[in-house]
Amino acid sequence: DKIISSDVFLRLENTSDKENKTVEIKINVPGDDFVVKKTAKSFEEGVDLAVDSVERVIVKRKEKLRAI
Fold first, then answer.
1. What is the DSSP letter of 64?
2. Which of 20, 47, 60, 63 could anchor a disulfide with 13, C-beta 3.0 to 4.6 Å?
């Protein structure tokens, strides 16, 4: 609910491996920063994986705050 900002970084790694596209998502919330980094064959796939991970992290944090 209280996301201050988010940054998305798309990086092409200099390797011969097919999975050389890295997506990094940084979410700023009051008192915390979440960083999720995923590597995939395409940027689209990497973004999908990273967004799924960010959602899990945010839900986990919200559940922890509700328990307090």
1. H
2. 20
Q: How far is CA 28 from CA 11, 13, 17, 56, 59, in A?
A: 20, 25, 32, 15, 15
49 neighbors 36 (Cβ within 8 angstroms): no
Residue reference for tokens 């996301």: 3
Question: For position 1, what pLDDT does the model report?
Answer: 64
- Dihedral (CA of 21, 27, 28, 30) sign: negative
Residues 1-50 have pLDDT tens digits of 688 999 999 999 888 888 899 999 999 988 889 999 999 999 999 999 99
Sign of CA dihedral 27, 47, 49, 41: negative
Structural contact between residues 17 and 39, judged by C-beta atoms closer than 8 angstroms? no
Residue 13 in tokens: 């790694």
